[in-house]
Amino acid sequence: MIGIDGGGTSTRVVVSDLSGNVLAYAEKGPASIYKDSSAKQNVQDAIVEAIEKAGKCYDQVQGIVAGIAGYDAPSDLDWIKPLTDVPGISC
Predict the structure, then answer these.
(1) What would the pLDDT profile of 24-44 be if each residue is shown by its tens digit?
(2) How far apart are CA 21 and CA 37, in angstroms?
(3) Which of 16, 35, 54, 55 would suit a FRET pair with 25, their CA atoms being 20 to 30 Å apart?
(4) Burial of 40: CB neighbours in 10 Å, binned 0-12, 13-18, 19+
(5) Is residue 91 assigned to a domain?
């Protein structure tokens, strides 16, 4: 499982097993495009780093939960959904 706290200052990603045990943590720059034009890269880099630190493969990810700063309207999903579009993750 991947949990994402995508803030305006930083993005924090945790990888855990299905019992909730934390396997790895990574932190990168902001997740909001209103704060950083590199938001997509920041989130994806944090996801990749956390998965690698956990010693897991992308196809082992069974779910992603995210809270993203700046998600205020349905139209924001246009820039939010691609944040977690990491090749190899299919959940």
Answers:
(1) 999 999 999 999 999 999 999
(2) 33
(3) 35
(4) middle
(5) no
